[in-house]
Amino acid sequence: MGHKVHPNGFRLGVYRNWEAKWFAPDKEFKPLLLEDVRLRRMLMTRLKNAGVARIETERSSSALTITLHTAKPGIVIGKGGTSVDQLRDELEKITGKRVRVTIQEIKKPELSAQLVAENVAAQLEKRIAFRRAIKQSLMKTMRAGAQGVKIRVKEMARVEWNREGRVPLHTLKADIDFGQTEARTTFGRIGVSAWVYTGNFPTEAPPKPQAAVEEPVESGVPVGAAIGEAPAPLAELVQATVAAPVAPESPAAQVTAAVPTEAPAAKPKRTRTPKATTTTADGGEKPKRATRARTTTGEKATTPKTPRARAAKKKE
């Protein structure tokens, strides 16, 4: 059996912050928790068409602050702010405290997993084919700049899912948003879950620039000491003394006399000594081979090569 871990709860306290930011003693914790759940259900039901992706609550001793992350802030605010005023009055009646409502707009709704799941659920309620609805949502999310997205549609005895890109669920530093909702159809309820991977959380803090404190110096003596002031403890640590400049020595001009170098003597040419002539059986003399003078190793022959003279054989 696989152990499924909620992606938001897996990163809670490490890279993600809590949606409910308040503290209460043991006796007051239970009623405040139930009140928080009722408020969230009421807001999600009333603002169903406003594209609310996240609700944050923050409590103080006498006030309650609710932050709504929505893709359509105009629907929440209403004409002239009438919708927000009515919503605030209802919340104050439920809680009995002063309520402050803050609205934050979502710039890219396609990158919010909750809104992606609600979009697929709305298409299923309109009897659109689930494969077509999933495919369209995947393409829109990837075009918006996501590195990976996964959508799963599940009913009682059937599960269908599709994925685009990569969704590293086991990587703790991966920024993965998770959302789920239900599609209420005539033949039952269908659960829709969505995972959106937008990159990694920043893990390295930018280096802080170090401010250097230096005391002005004149000719190697601090200004404070020249005036007669007592140096401060910090000034003693950061005093920078400048060494007296040393005049560079002028190098003596060295004149080197050019010594004429003699050209290397050319090697004498070696010639072959002619061999003694020999006589044949008929009493004739064999012709001598033509001799060539060998050139030195560094020189090349300028005259073209001539073929060697071959001795003519006489037929008997």
Question: How would you describe this protein?
Answer:
This protein is an alpha+beta fold and 316 residues long. Among the domains are: 7-107, 2-Layer Sandwich (GMP Synthetase, Chain A, domain 3); 110-200, Ribosomal protein S3 C-terminal domain (2-Layer Sandwich). Helices cover 26% and strands 22% of the residues. The chain has helices spanning 7-10, 26-46, 73-77, 82-95, 113-125, 130-143, 223-227, 233-238, and strands at 20-21, 52-59, 63-70, 98-105, 148-154, 159-165, 174-185, 188-200, 217-218, 221-222. 16% of the residues are buried.
Summarize the structure.
The protein contains 8 helices and 10 strands. By secondary structure, it is an alpha+beta fold.
What is the distance, rounded to the nearest whole angstrom, between the alpha carbons of the first and last residues? Answer: 111 Å
As a percent range, the share of helical residues equals 25-40%
Radius of gyration: 48 Å
CATH topology of the domain at 7-107: GMP Synthetase, Chain A, domain 3
Tell me how many strands there are: 10
**What ranges have pLDDT less than 50 throughout 5 or more consecutive residues?**
251-259
Element pattern in H and E: HEHEEHHEHHEEEEEEHH
Mean pLDDT across the residues is: 79
The general outline is: elongated
CATH architecture of the domain at 7-107: 2-Layer Sandwich
Helix/strand-derived class? alpha+beta
Could you give the order of strands across the largest sheet?
A: 1-2-3-4
Proportion in β-strands: 15-25%
CATH domain class name of the domain at 7-107 = Alpha Beta
